[in-house]
Amino acid sequence: MICEYKSVETSPRRGEPPCGGLWFRNRIYSVQTTLLDARTGVKKVRRIGLEPKTLPDARNEMAALLQTIAEKGATRQQGRTFKDHREHYIKRVASQRSRLLS
């Protein structure tokens, strides 16, 4: 069974507006938003998981999260770049080779 993200939409008959950016998967609500990568300066779309179990609570938490991101200019921190990882990997392989050959 494939679990897909489903957009959360409320019934228009209830007079409630749709929840833009709110998604639901595996009984977990998440917010889809754009975050600025601190290292590269590139904006990327990310989904951030939320804790609430009900739709009204998820809406409130989504609003609070988006307000926090707007106020603080939240950025996503990343680990090492590929270049750094490659250099580390090459050094490690070279040291293992020297141990095996000696």
Descriptive account of the structure:
β3 (28-37) and β4 form a beta hairpin. The termini are far apart. It is built from 2 helices and 5 strands; from the N terminus they run ββββαβα. By secondary structure, the chain is α+β, with helices and mostly antiparallel strands. It has one domain. The radius of gyration is 21 Å and the shape is elongated.
Q: What number of domains? A: 1
Question: What is the CA–CA distance across the termini?
Answer: 51 Å
Q: How would you sum up the major sheet?
A: 5 strands, mixed
Into which percent range does the helicity of residues fall? 25-40%
Shape descriptor? elongated
Write the element-wise H/E pattern from the N-terminal end onward: EEEEHEH
Strand element count: 5
Mean pLDDT: 77
Alpha plus pi helix count: 2
Q: Rg from C-alpha positions?
A: 21 Å
User: Runs with pLDDT <50, length 5+?
Assistant: none
Helical/strand content category: alpha+beta
- Percent strand equals 15-25%
